[in-house]
Amino acid sequence: MLASAPPSRPNAKGLIFAATSWGLFWGGWAGLLPEVKDQIGATESEFGLALFGIPVGALPAMVITGKLVSRMRERALPLVLSVFAVACALPGWTHSPVTFALSLVLIGATSGAIEVALNATTAAHEARDGVRLFNKVHAATPLAMVVAAPSVGLARQAGASSRDVLLVIAALVLVSAFLSVDRAGWRTQSTSDTAVRPRSMTPVLIAFGLVAAVVLFMENAVEQWGAIHLEQDLGAGPLLGSAAPAAYMIGLAGGRLLVQWQGERFSGLTVVVLGSVLGAVGLVLAVVTEPAGLPAVVALVGFALAGVGLAPAVPTLLGMAGKSTDDERRPAAITTVTTISYLGFLGSPPLVGLMAASWGLSTAFAVVAAGGVLVAAAAALLRLPEPEGVAG
C-alpha cells in the first residue's frame, strides 16, 4: 500500500515552479526567434539547420538522465534545472550560426534532461505522498507559455534585447532550481509495497510511450501549424491566427486541471480514451470550418476543445507508468515513456508539412485528427493495474 501523505507535502510546489520556469523559457523563446536570427546574421537555411541542435542534444540527454536520476534521486532535478538556467542565457551571447547551434545543443540537452527528471521526480512524489500530481504539474507549462509569449513581445517592443530577456528567464529558472530542492527525500519502497506486476513491464511501457507519442504528434501539429491553418486556409488576420496555439495551450492547461480535480472518478485509461476522442472531435471541427463556410473563430474553438481533450493523456500515462514499478526501476520506466513520446513531438512539424504540401493543410489536420481515434483504440486495449488509495 502507498504511504499516507505527510501533512506538509513538502515539495509539490517546487515541481510546479520547475514546470512553470521550463514553460516560461519555451513560450518566450518563440517570441525571440526573429531577433536572434538577425543577431547572428543567419540565412533562412543556416537558421533552420541551427535549430536542429535542440533535438540533437535532447534525445541522448534524456537517456542519460534516466540513469542520473536513478543514482541522484531527489538531487537530479535541481541539478538539471541549474544547468538549464545557464543554457538559457547562452543564445543571447552568440553572434554566428555556429555558436548559436552549439548553444542550442546544450539547451536541447538540458531541456530533455528536465523532461525526464521532472517526470521521474513527480512519479516519486506520487508514490511517496499518495497523491496525484502529474496533471497538476503538467498544467503549469502551457499556462506559462501562454503568459511568456506576449510578455516577451511587450519586452522587445519596450526595447529589451534578447540577452536581457534570456537573463531574466535564466534567473527565474535558477529560482525554480532552488525551490525544487527536496529535503524530505524519496521513499524507499520494498517489493511487498508494490502491487503484483507482470514479470517484464517493458512491452507495456513501450506501448505507453507510443500512445503518448501520437498525442504529442497531435499537440505539436496544432502548436506549429494551427496559426497557418487559420490564416492560410480560413483567411483569418494575424491577430486571430496567432491565437490558435494560445487557445490550444489554454485548453491544455484547463483540461489537465479538470482531470486533476475530478479524474479520480475514472480509471487512467478511461481518461485517455475519452479525452483523445474529444481531442479528435475538436480537430475535426477545425477542419470542417472552411468547407462548412463557418467563421474562423469556430476553428479556434475546435483547437481549444482539442487541447482540453488531449490534455490529460500524457500526464496520465506517465502517472500509470510510475505506479507500475518500484522505486528502483521507476526512473527507467519514466525515461522509456518520456523518450519514446518525444519522438512524436519531434516528428510532427516536418511530417505535417509533408502532408500539407501533398494534400493541403486541411487534409493534413484531418489525418492528425484520426490520431485521436488511434489513441483511443490503443488505450482501450492496454491493461495495467492501478494502485488504490491515491488522493487528488
Automatic annotation (TrEMBL):
What GO cellular-component annotations does this UniProt entry give?
plasma membrane
UniProt-listed SUPFAM superfamilies: MFS general substrate transporter
Alphabetically, the GO molecular function entries are: transmembrane transporter activity
Localization recorded for this chain is: Cell membrane
Q: Which PROSITE patterns match?
A: MFS
Record keyword Transmembrane present: yes
Family matches, as InterPro entries: MFS (IPR011701), MFS_dom (IPR020846), MFS_trans_sf (IPR036259), MFS_Transporter (IPR051788)
Could you identify this protein by its name?
MFS transporter
Organism phylogeny: Bacteria, Bacillati, Actinomycetota, Actinomycetes, Pseudonocardiales
